[in-house]
Each structure stands twice: as structure tokens, then as C-alpha cells.
Amino acid sequence: MKEFNLDDVIRKVPDFPKPGILFYDITSIMMNPEAFKWVLDKMAEVFSSRNIGAVAAVESRGFIFAAPLAEKLGLPLILVRKAGKLPGETLKKSYELEYGEATIEIHKADIPVGKNVLIVDDLLATGGTLKAAADLLIEGGAEVTDVFSVIGLPFLNYSEVLKDFKITTFIDYDSE
């Protein structure tokens, strides 16, 4: 597969959401059909050879990348939602964000007991959201083997938080 320079299409927004932060805007990939197709095709290429039984998508931009991947690979799609968005019995976990605290939840019935799960999000910063999602899936009986984000910010040390999982990113930014 031909490589694609994602850096050329990722919009960088200074001082968002607060002064001193450089925000990497993933929506510009979706505005570029060639870039978006490349990301989806590359994800399918990378993950088709791994022993994955389901794909978990982190709300909300993770949905955009995980749903087409799950369809391409013929796998179930598990939604990791913000608290209060799912009816029925859920598992919940609160965790620290770079800018505060959040709570996520998963339908308990959607967790594939004993199966390997790939967790997908758009951007990997501190790893807190993906770790919380992994904790919920493991609590429900799944095995989390892989985490994926289009963009990685390794200077925020996510690899320490996610050390138990294989981490894949397509582009990394090494400083703020």
C-alpha cells in the first residue's frame, strides 16, 4: 500500500482548548477523501492479520474509524460511550483527563467474553480514556490486546499507561 503523508492534512489549531495547547484536528482527515480512505485501508491491512474478535469504538471520533474497520473485518462493533448515553445494564468507569474527569460506559451484554478486542480512538494523548475502556472490557470478561489511534502524542507518556497492550498509531507528534 502506498504511504500517505497525514501531516499534510492534519489541521493544527494553536491555543485550543486553552492557551499553550496545540490541538491536532482529526476532522481534516475526514474532509480529504484520499486521506480518509488511506487511513481506513491501512487499518484493515494492519489489523486483519491479528487475532481480533471485536472492535471497541471510543465516543465520538473513534466511532468514525472503528465502524468501517469492524465492517471491513466482519467483526462486532462495541460502543464505548459517555456516561448516561446507554440504556440497560452497563459497566462504568471514571478516569482523569488532561483537562478534568470523565466517565465512560459499555453495555455489559456487548462485551465479548474471552475474545480479543481492539480499542479504536482518533488521538492518543495520556492514554487515560483508552485505559479506562480497556479496564471496562477486561472487567466484563474480554481480552484487550491492541489499541489504535490515528494520531499519537508520545511525549505525554501514553505508553506507560497502556504498557499491557500493543499500541498502533499512524502519525506521532513528539512535542507540544
UniProtKB/TrEMBL annotation:
<dbReference type="GO" id="GO:0006166">
    <property type="term" value="P:purine ribonucleoside salvage"/>
</dbReference>
<dbReference type="InterPro" id="IPR050054">
    <property type="entry name" value="UPRTase/APRTase"/>
</dbReference>
<keyword id="KW-0660">Purine salvage</keyword>
<comment type="function">
    <text>Catalyzes a salvage reaction resulting in the formation of AMP, that is energically less costly than de novo synthesis.</text>
</comment>
<comment type="pathway">
    <text>Purine metabolism; AMP biosynthesis via salvage pathway; AMP from adenine: step 1/1.</text>
</comment>
<feature type="domain" description="Phosphoribosyltransferase">
    <location>
        <begin position="29"/>
        <end position="144"/>
    </location>
</feature>
<dbReference type="GO" id="GO:0016208">
    <property type="term" value="F:AMP binding"/>
</dbReference>
<dbReference type="GO" id="GO:0044209">
    <property type="term" value="P:AMP salvage"/>
</dbReference>
<comment type="similarity">
    <text>Belongs to the purine/pyrimidine phosphoribosyltransferase family.</text>
</comment>
<comment type="subunit">
    <text>Homodimer.</text>
</comment>
<dbReference type="InterPro" id="IPR005764">
    <property type="entry name" value="Ade_phspho_trans"/>
</dbReference>
<dbReference type="InterPro" id="IPR000836">
    <property type="entry name" value="PRTase_dom"/>
</dbReference>
<protein>
    <recommendedName>
        <fullName>Adenine phosphoribosyltransferase</fullName>
        <ecNumber>2.4.2.7</ecNumber>
    </recommendedName>
</protein>
<dbReference type="GO" id="GO:0003999">
    <property type="term" value="F:adenine phosphoribosyltransferase activity"/>
</dbReference>
<dbReference type="InterPro" id="IPR029057">
    <property type="entry name" value="PRTase-like"/>
</dbReference>
<dbReference type="GO" id="GO:0002055">
    <property type="term" value="F:adenine binding"/>
</dbReference>
<dbReference type="Pfam" id="PF00156">
    <property type="entry name" value="Pribosyltran"/>
</dbReference>
<keyword id="KW-0808">Transferase</keyword>
<keyword id="KW-0328">Glycosyltransferase</keyword>
<dbReference type="GO" id="GO:0005737">
    <property type="term" value="C:cytoplasm"/>
</dbReference>
<keyword id="KW-0963">Cytoplasm</keyword>
<dbReference type="GO" id="GO:0006168">
    <property type="term" value="P:adenine salvage"/>
</dbReference>
